[in-house]
UDP-galactopyranose mutase
Amino acid sequence: MKTYDYLIVGAGLFGCVFAHELKKVGKSSLIIDKRSHLGGNVYCEDVRSINVHKYGPHIFHTNDKAIWDYVNQFATFNNYINSPVSMSKGKLYNLPFNMNTFYQLWGVKTPKEAKAIIEEQAQKYGVKNPKNLEEQALSLIGKDVYDTLIKEYTEKQWGTKATELPAFIIKRLPVRYTFDNNYFNDKYQGIPEGGYNAIIDGLIKDIDTKTNVDYFENKAELDALADKVVFTGKIDEFFNYEFGNLEYRSLKFESEILEEENHQGSAIVNYNDSTVPYTRIIEHKHFEFGKQNHTVITREYPQKWTRGMEAYYPINNEKNQAVYKKYKDKASTLPNIIFGGRLAEYRYYDMHQIIGSSLSKVKKEIESFNS
Ligand code: UDP
């Protein structure tokens, strides 16, 4: 008899949801994480009573009522609606691309006028089957929006030419012919009151956890504790990089406490210009409508990723996808290890998608007990 049914490597949303569901059917887990805290990248740090999103801004949004109900079991969500602005050559524009943005860019006052400009530019600069981010953006929204709000931000964010990035990345952003600055199209949206730690605490209640534990340094010993492993770390690292390195983009965060009530009037201000080294400034208190006399801001700097650094964004180009496929095929030959989450599935996942993926994988696992 092993001590646990499952060893869960990584205390992010994927692992915590998985362990929570297993617990409901009487299976035990040990969750380990190499960081000094649980929660993975949704972890919030309390800085003078402001929840600081330590690993970048996390705004929960989903169209799936089941997932919305799922997270609402653990926390009450406020009615925060993400509506960032973007600074470009000294002027602020609303995001996502909507009638406010088009008015700011061209002075157009009706959807018809905006559509006429975008269609003309899309025809002139766009292509039929966009194969990369630049072609996709030009075909979708035209050259002015691309030049003002996309190109420099994207190339700074990814450290790559927009012509070498996959088209799907830009499709994350809505294009709208209404005066609506909501960054997401999803039906449900908000920030958990008390921060994301409340959700993690709810998920791992009565489950054993250990922080500051490096799986790879103690692998044999840790594996011996459980019948099965759920691995949520980097899949290439798991296989000791035998098919080569997957590429990621990393980030550096610089936070500052300011003795003023309201610094920038928005939780997120993007900086498009390539001359500014950061992509955005986060003012965390606005996620929870904070009324403190002070504020905390964080500048987010994209970084070249090398081994040993935090891997934030998978770079899903063709080359990396081909490498990932080799790891995935190999992973599927290991019946006692379940791979899941952003790093193990090498996917640009949002929180609701991770939860969806974890719930569906754990469901399969539970069904397998009876077959
Ligand atoms: N993007 C952009 N300009 C912006 C914001 C985003 O061109 O002001 C592009 C950029 O390529 C980015 C992608 O849209 O990587 C997705 O943006 P999102 O805000 O979804 O990124 P995240 O918050 O996940 O970093």
